[in-house]
Each structure stands twice: as C-alpha cells, then as structure tokens.
C-alpha cells in the first residue's frame, strides 16, 4: 500500500475510534477528561487559550526554506483545524524588514515576545559565514542568548538553527540534530547528535538539513494538534514526509 494511502487510512481510523471529526483537531480544554488522560509528551504546551501559539524567529541571513516551510505548514494546518495553530514571525528585537539568505525580503510585524509563545522556531542560515548575516550574529549576541536560555516554550531548531540553541546551552547532553555540515561542531559542544531527519527530545525538537523544516513542522502538527490534521496538511501540500522522527 502506498505510504500516503496507509497514513490517511490510519489517521481516519484513529479519528473514528476517538470520535473526532476534522473540525475537532484543536487541543482539549484544560481540566477536561480527555486533556487529563493525554500522555504529557502528547499535550501541547500550556497556553491560556486552546490555540497553539508558534513564533518563527526571523533575522538577516535566515535560510529562506528554513522559515518558509514551517510558516506554510503551520499556516495551512491552522486553516484545516479551525485555528488550532497561530503562527507569527518575529525578530529578536523589534519590528523591521529582514533580508533572507537568498534575497527574500520580509516585513516582520513584531519583536520576539517569549511570554506570548508556546513554541519558538529558530531557523538556520549562513553558518559557513562567520562574519556575514545569519546565525552567527545571533550566536554572538550574549543578551539574546541569555534571554533564549530562560525560555519556557518548546524550542524548535531547524537546520543550523540548532547551533543557536547550542550556543545558549540548551543542547548539552540532549538528543538533537542539525545540518550534516554542522554535526561535528554540535557534538563538540556537548550534544548527543542523532542521525535522524527529526529529533524530538521533549521540549527541544530539532531538524536536519534545510528541507527538514517541512518534516519538523508536520511532526509538530501531528504531536500538538492531531495526526488527522497532519495527514490532511501533507496531502494538500502534495508532500510525503521523509526520514525518521526519533523520539526520546
């Protein structure tokens, strides 16, 4: 059986068994019986609302695909789930125009507000250019790293965005992955590097190379919203997930 056909059938059977319709993809209200019975690893991070609030960090030199993939996947998942996901783009400091790695210019409406996010996605970009725009400018920003180290949200590193998490001390002795060209550096900094497309270590989720942002975002939808919405999103995108999701 084709993988997508199998996944769709599995998701539909899960939905029927759980009494879920396509519109019931949002997380259970806190205090409800279903919310209390859900395993901790499967619950979305705590939020004053049922909507999963995701912020995608934008900065000069960000790899285009690293931020576009999660924005597209999560935005589509939101449409398919009656707003179970809210995705916004933020800069480390203030609203401004950001120029991505390949010239895409994005007007980012707000600065990063850690208390208003359940999940922070940190894309990569420019890792081989120590002095140019990209992740190294974040890595050199001690105030930003200190702020990142205090975040209570789930942290998601895409590609070399994982190296930013590492610089903040968030990957030491953790199971993580990154772009293959940065894996040796990540291991040197104390991480347990896993050779998988997506690595889920609880409150830290990381993805491999540039296109892994698609698979990371689809996994986020599956974990925090529902498998049904993840499969429907995958089908609309005409994309079949690649590689392995490694879970602790």
Characteristics:
alpha/beta, eight-stranded mixed sheet, two-stranded antiparallel ribbon
Q: Can you give a write-up of this model?
A:
The longest helix is centred in the N-terminal third of the chain and has 17 residues, at 64-80. The protein has an eight-stranded mixed beta sheet, with helices on both faces. A two-stranded antiparallel ribbon has the order 3-4. The model is unreliable at 12-44 (pLDDT under 50). With 248 residues, it is an alpha/beta fold. The chain is built from nine helices and twelve strands. Helix 3 crosses helix 9 (227-237) and helix 8 packs antiparallel against helix 9. Strand 1, helix 3 and strand 2 (85-91) form a beta-alpha-beta unit. It is 35% helix and 18% strand. The chain is globular and about 40 Å long.
Residue-averaged pLDDT, rounded? 86
**Which percent band covers the strand fraction?**
15-25%
Number of helices: 9
Give the strand line-up of the largest sheet: 5-2-1-6-7-11-10-12
Cα end-to-end separation = 29 Å
Question: Could you give the order of the helices and strands?
Answer: HHEHEEEEEHHEHEHEEEHHE
């Amino acid at each position: 059986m084709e993988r997508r056909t199998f996944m769709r059938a599995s998701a539909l059977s899960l939905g029927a068994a759980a009494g879920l319709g396509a519109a019931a993809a949002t997380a259970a209200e806190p205090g409800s019986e279903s919310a209390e019975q859900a395993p901790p690893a499967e619950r979305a991070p705590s939020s004053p609302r049922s909507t999963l609030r995701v912020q995608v960090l934008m900065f000069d030199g960000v790899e285009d695909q690293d931020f576009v993939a999660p924005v597209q996947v999560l935005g589509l998942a939101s449409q398919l789930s009656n707003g179970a996901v809210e995705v916004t783009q933020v800069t480390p400091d203030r609203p401004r125009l950001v120029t991505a790695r390949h010239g895409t210019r994005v007007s980012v409406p707000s600065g990063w507000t850690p208390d208003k996010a359940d999940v922070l996605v940190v894309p990569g970009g420019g890792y081989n250019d120590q002095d140019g725009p990209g992740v190294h400018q974040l890595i050199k920003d001690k105030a930003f790293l200190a702020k990142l180290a205090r975040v209570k949200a789930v942290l998601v590193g895409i590609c070399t965005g994982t190296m930013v998490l590492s610089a903040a001390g968030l990957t030491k002795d953790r199971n993580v992955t990154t772009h293959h060209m940065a894996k040796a550096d990540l291991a040197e900094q104390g991480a347990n590097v896993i050779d998988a497309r997506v690595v889920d270590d609880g409150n830290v989720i990381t993805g491999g190379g540039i296109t892994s942002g698609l698979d990371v975002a689809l996994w986020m939808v599956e974990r925090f919203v529902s498998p049904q919405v993840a499969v429907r999103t995958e089908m609309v995108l005409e994309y079949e997930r690649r590689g392995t999701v490694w879970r602790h």
